[in-house]
């Protein structure tokens, strides 16, 4: 990795190589080097490799490392070359010597000059941050490149890539990711950015944006860009925690850094002003989510970071990350403080940390025109906080050539045209068609796509074997009109189920694209488990057919719906809906208003509802899939509020009621202790209604662990007309397992959850108190299987182990209350498949 190297030109040559220990032959990480006669240089990467551009007339490189003899290497003029260096230990080796191992001094923070220095850096953080100024403005250039990496020549020459050879790139073998690359995504962005201290506000004006655009039938381009931005966020060394690949790593200058890191003064650099102290750091526990690397601290009283090199230990508890390097450079402001001028983050991913093909992402960020305490125009202080100038995505290549602070290489400049060409090749289209079918579950036929395939076959206790087929139209048919349908047949109940929906887009874009603005009308006749509302999965998904206990209480539903949905750029949205709903019992479920449930039964319940739903998700990021919009979880909360009014007499509705529901979802990051996902929700129903219209609490009778369900509650076990609940799911990210010898090698992660539900029924809706209320369902022994919560809350919790084989979480779940209810399981084992970094 090159540090301090100028851009190559006609008068420059490239020198690279590896610095090793002369005795062990192992690569030496972070060895400092200087170009003779200059103050420019850098350091080797974690494997001892380096690359530097040398101007003609510069004839030497000086390598220095604490504990080793300094070595100077001559450079041949006019030709790029490889110079490998072997550094000798400072200690003289004798022919015969008796070595008695003394006790290694224990590392201590007390009276450690390196720790005293880092504490000075921590004390001075506030005056070296952007927040110290009243106004700040700067221009920011970002470039993101994502490639398949470490590809062998054998892989490259496979028959399937016969027509794609123009896509491959070769890079310097000293860089992470290997020699052969296959670029798959590139994006550039140029923006003006503003910061106002009081009241605190930031604003971004995007001047230009250029990226690879894939066929929207296969890939959500905006979502892909958003996902990469989340994985490769800006690195602020002054933050206590730094987000990298969706995890938070403790900064080496965090307030608590001396507790988790070891610090060493490794060099003093007096060849530039101000003088710098080279401060090396490493994690006390190599498996914890921590960095290692070097900081260069100014000795001018600011105790600012002038340069930083961050990497991670090979033992870190991060999945699929084979290598990570981040370079940060800082420049002085007019007031002698320092601001970030350039950062470069590279991460190499792979199923194996040692070898094989993988993916490499690189994000380069450059800052210029940095101005401080210059009052900003009044328009900057006004909403919206993100502005994209007209035609930002249509800027000419001449514009980019003039405004890129870092020029694209010839190979990278071809990526846009190469990938455009790729999408015109028939074999690539066929490949994407197969990939989309496998991962998204849809087969594309141009104006119509069939799916999702995981619902084509399923089974349950009422329908038996269930066959289904369906699909929907695409933008190839129309950008205004969309239609969706399916038909299903149950071989046990011998009934047809079907669904048809028509949608009209009001903003001339796909109804799945953000921000949504459409009206829709639909009719659905199908089965449903009472109270079962799944997220990010279809209820007739084949894998959810496997359930524990009895599973034959269902509803036949007829839904007539009209909806209007409107989203705004600030991620506030609302929807208005009118629904006519007919419910009929199926299986062993029945409706009855008397104790004689076998003779006095009700065939159906008819309701007509008007609904207003409000949602606010500030700074929300997501990937839009074929079926669901998948949020990219971050620290920002999500608020939901919904009001439903049942209107008696409207379209045959039989009940008057008002249902108020609200929820808050929030992820809390706790630094080295991991993170907590917290959900608070509640509801209050006004009016007398039968139990199918009450809040039927979400139960789970599958063997999968469901985050938002009660995993030891039975279907239809509890109903309420008012309730409040809390759901806590905490992931320790291996904080404790990382301290256990041998166990830490497995990279397991501890998980803990707790769920509490408090609620009840007013007398008017409780059949035990009110004889006119609809009766709860009883089993064959005459015992009610549906209950109201009493003064005691429903409680369950779990402890588990995550990251098993990097994809599996297994929980032991314990139920603490209402243990005397029929068919109750006090504890169970549940599993969940999830890919985590």
UniProtKB/TrEMBL annotation:
Superkingdom, natural source: Bacteria
* Keywords for the protein's UniProt record, in alphabetical order: Carboxypeptidase, Hydrolase, Protease
UniProt KW Protease keyword = yes
Is Lipoprotein tagged as a keyword? no
Q: Name one GO molecular function term.
A: carboxypeptidase activity
Q: What is this protein called in UniProt? A: Carboxypeptidase-like regulatory domain-containing protein
Q: Which organism is it from?
A: Pedobacter frigoris
Q: What is the lineage of its organism?
A: Bacteria, Pseudomonadati, Bacteroidota, Sphingobacteriia, Sphingobacteriales
């Amino acid at each position: 990795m090159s540090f301090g190297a100028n851009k190559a030109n006609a008068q420059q040559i490239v020198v690279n190589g590896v610095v090793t220990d002369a005795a062990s032959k192992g690569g030496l990480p972070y060895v400092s080097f200087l170009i003779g006669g200059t103050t420019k240089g850098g350091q080797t990467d974690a494997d001892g490799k380096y690359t530097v551009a040398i101007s003609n007339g510069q004839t030497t490189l000086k390598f220095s490392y604490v504990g080793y003899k300094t070595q100077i290497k001559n450079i041949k003029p006019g030709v790029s070359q490889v110079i490998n260096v072997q550094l000798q230990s400072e200690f003289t080796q004798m022919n015969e010597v008796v070595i008695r191992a003394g006790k290694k001094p224990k590392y201590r923070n007390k009276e450690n000059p390196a720790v005293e220095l880092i504490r000075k850096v921590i004390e001075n953080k506030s005056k070296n941050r952007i927040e110290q100024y009243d106004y700040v403005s700067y221009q920011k250039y970002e470039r993101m490149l994502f490639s398949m990496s470490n590809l062998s020549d054998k892989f490259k020459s496979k028959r399937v890539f016969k027509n794609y050879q123009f896509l491959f790139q070769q890079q310097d073998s000293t860089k992470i990711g290997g020699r052969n690359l296959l670029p798959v995504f590139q994006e550039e962005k140029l923006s003006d950015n503003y910061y106002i201290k009081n009241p605190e506000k930031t604003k971004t004006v995007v001047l230009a944006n250029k990226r690879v655009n894939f066929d929207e039938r296969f890939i959500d381009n905006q979502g892909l860009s958003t996902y990469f931005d989340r994985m490769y966020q800006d690195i602020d060394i002054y933050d206590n925690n730094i987000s990298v690949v969706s995890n938070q790593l403790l900064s080496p200058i965090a307030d608590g850094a001396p507790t988790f890191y070891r610090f060493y003064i490794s060099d003093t650099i007096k060849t530039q002003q101000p003088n710098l102290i080279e401060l090396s750091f490493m994690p006390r526990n190599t498996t914890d989510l921590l960095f290692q690397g070097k900081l260069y601290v100014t000795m001018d009283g600011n105790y600012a970071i002038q340069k930083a090199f961050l990497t991670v230990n090979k033992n870190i508890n991060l999945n699929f990350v084979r290598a990570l390097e981040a370079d940060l450079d800082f420049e002085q402001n007019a007031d002698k403080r320092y601001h970030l001028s350039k950062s470069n983050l590279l991460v190499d991913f792979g199923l194996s940390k040692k070898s094989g093909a993988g993916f490499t992402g690189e994000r380069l960020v450059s800052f210029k025109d940095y101005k401080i305490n210059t009052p900003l125009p009044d328009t900057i202080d006004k909403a919206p906080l993100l502005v994209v100038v007209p035609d930002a995505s249509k800027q000419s290549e001449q514009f980019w050539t003039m405004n890129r602070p870092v020029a694209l290489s010839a190979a990278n400049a071809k990526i846009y045209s190469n990938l455009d060409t790729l999408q015109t090749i028939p074999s690539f289209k066929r490949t994407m068609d197969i990939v989309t079918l496998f991962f998204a579950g849809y087969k594309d036929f141009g104006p119509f796509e069939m799916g999702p395939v995981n619902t084509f076959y399923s089974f349950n206790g009422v329908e038996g074997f269930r066959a289904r087929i369906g699909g929907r139209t695409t933008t190839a048919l129309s950008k205004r009109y969309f239609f969706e349908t399916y038909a299903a047949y149950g071989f046990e109940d011998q009934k047809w189920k079907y669904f048809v929906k028509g949608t009209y887009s009001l903003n001339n874009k796909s109804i799945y694209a953000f921000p949504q603005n459409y009206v829709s009308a639909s009719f659905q006749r199908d089965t449903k488990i009472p109270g079962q509302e799944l997220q990010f999965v279809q209820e007739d998904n084949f894998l959810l057919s496997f359930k524990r206990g009895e599973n034959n209480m269902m509803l036949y539903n007829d839904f007539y719906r009209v909806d209007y949905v409107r989203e705004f750029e600030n991620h506030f949205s609302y929807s208005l809906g009118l629904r006519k709903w007919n419910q009929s019992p199926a299986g062993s479920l029945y409706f009855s208003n008397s104790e004689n449930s076998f003779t006095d039964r009700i065939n159906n319940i008819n309701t007509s509802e008007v609904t207003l739903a409000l949602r606010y998700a500030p700074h929300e990021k997501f990937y839009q899939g074929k079926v669901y919009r998948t949020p990219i979880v971050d620290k920002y909360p999500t608020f939901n509020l919904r009001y439903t009014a049942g209107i008696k007499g409207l379209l045959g509705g039989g009940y008057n009621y008002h249902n108020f529901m609200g929820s808050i979802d929030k992820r809390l990051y706790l630094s080295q202790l991991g993170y907590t996902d917290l959900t608070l929700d509640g509801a209050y129903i006004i009016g007398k209604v039968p139990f199918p219209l009450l809040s039927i609490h979400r139960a789970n009778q599958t063997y999968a662990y469901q985050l938002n369900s009660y995993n030891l509650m039975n279907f239809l076990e509890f109903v309420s007309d008012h309730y409040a609940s809390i759901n806590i799911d905490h992931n320790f990210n291996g904080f404790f397992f990382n301290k256990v010898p041998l166990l830490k090698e497995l990279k397991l992660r501890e998980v803990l959850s707790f769920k509490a539900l408090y609620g009840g029924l007013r007398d008017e809706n409780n059949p035990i108190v009110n004889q006119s209320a609809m009766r709860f369902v009883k089993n064959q022994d005459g015992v009610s299987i549906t209950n109201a919560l009493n003064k005691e809350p429903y409680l369950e919790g779990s402890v588990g182990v995550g990251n098993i084989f990097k994809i599996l979480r297994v929980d032991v779940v314990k139920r603490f209350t209402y243990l005397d209810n029929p068919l109750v399981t006090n504890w169970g084992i549940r599993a969940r498949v999830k890919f985590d970094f």
